[in-house]
Amino acid sequence: MIKIEKKIIKNKAFFYLSEQINIGSAYKKNQVYLGKNIPKNLKPYYDQLQEKEVIVISDNISKIFKLDEIFSLKEYIEIEKTRIKLKYLFQGLTKYQKEILWKKFAIRFIFESNAIEGSKLSEKEVIAIVRKKFGDQNERKEIIEVHNAIKAFEIIKSGLFALNQRKIIALHNTLTQGLDITRGYKKKHIVVNNKETVSPGKVRDNMATLINWWHEQKKAKLHPFILTASFHSRFEHIHPFADGNGRVGRLIYIWMLQKFGYGVILFENKNRQSYFTALDQADNGRPRKLYYHCLRAYRRTASYLSPES
Question: How many helices (H) and strands (E) in the chain?
C-alpha cells in the first residue's frame, strides 16, 4: 500500500511517498521524496513512483514468479507495466473519482459481456438502465440481464465473493434471477462448438479439482496472468451451468485479477469470434492463442481506462 511517510532528521520533518514491493523472497522499499511539506498535487510524485516500480519489478521478475515459456521475458515485463499502469490510475483519486472510474468500467464490461452472449442492447441503453432511466424489470430479457449483471458486478467488487462452489453457484443465481434458466449446476448434457462439455454428473468433481488446482498454482507462484487466463479456459471448458457460463466466467476473471492486484480486463464483442476460437483451441491443449488474446485485451483495457482515452 502506498503511503506518505514522515522522517525526522536533526529535528526536521521530511516527507516521502513510499511502498514496500515484494521482490520474491524479500521486500524492497520504493519511495520518492516529497519535500519538507506535503505538496497539494501529488500526481507528479505518483508518476515518479510508478516509473521506479517498473524498474524494480523488471529487474526482479524472475525472482517473483514462476515464468511459463508461453511469453518472453519482454512480454512478461509488458504485462507488469500494464498492471502498474492500472494500479496508478486509481492513485490520488478521491473516493468519488474512483467510483466514477469503476462505473465507467462496469457499464462497458456489462455491455460487452452481455453482447458477447447475444444481447442486442446498445451501450447507451445499458448506461440508461444503470442510471435507472430506461426499462423495467418486467420487460425485455436483456433489461433483466443488465439489472442482474449490476448486482453480480457489485458482489465481485465488494469483496463478498470467494472462490468456492457455493459462492460460484450464488453468483450464477444472481446473474440469472428472473430468467428462464436452470438454477445451480446443469442437469443436461450441453454441446458447445460441436464439442461435448463436462457431463452433469461430473461437474461438481471437476469444479472441486479446478479450484484445488487454482490454489496449488497460486502457491507455486505461477504468474497471475497465466493463472487467471488458464482458470478462465478450464472453467469455460467445464461449462458448469445450463446458461450464463461466459458471464460468470468473466466476472470471476475480474475477481481473480483484483485479488492479485492486476486490475481488470475487458473482452469486447467486436473480438467475439477470436475470443471463442482462442477458448476452443485451449480446450484442445493449445492455449497460446488465448493467452495472447487476453494480453491484447488487457492492454486495451488499460488504454480505455486511462484519462486521455
Answer: 11, 5
Over the chain (309 residues), the average pLDDT of each successive run of 10 is 93 95 93 95 94 96 92 96 94 88 93 94 90 63 91 92 97 94 91 86 97 95 95 97 96 96 96 96 94 97 85
In this prediction the pTM is: 0.93
Q: Per residue in 211-230, is it b (16+ CB within 10 Å) or e — as a string? A: beebeebbeeebbbbbbbbb
Residue 237 and residue 145 share a domain: yes
| Burial zone of 12 (CB within 10 Å; 0-12 exposed, 13-18 middle, 19+ buried) | exposed
- Give me the residue label for grid cell 444472481: 174
Question: CATH number for the domain including 191?
Answer: 1.10.3290.10
Q: Which domain holds residue 113?
A: 95-305
Laid out side by side, the sheet with 12-22 consists of: 3-9, 12-22, 27-35
Q: What is the DSSP letter of 66?
A: B
| Residue 123 resides in a domain | yes
Considering the domain architecture, whether residues 125 and 215 belong to the same structural domain is answered as: yes
Residue 205 CB neighbour total at 10 angstroms: 10
Strand-pairing partners, residue 19, are: 30
183 and 300: one domain? yes
User: How far is Cα 209 from Cα 306, in angstroms, rounded to an integer?
Assistant: 38
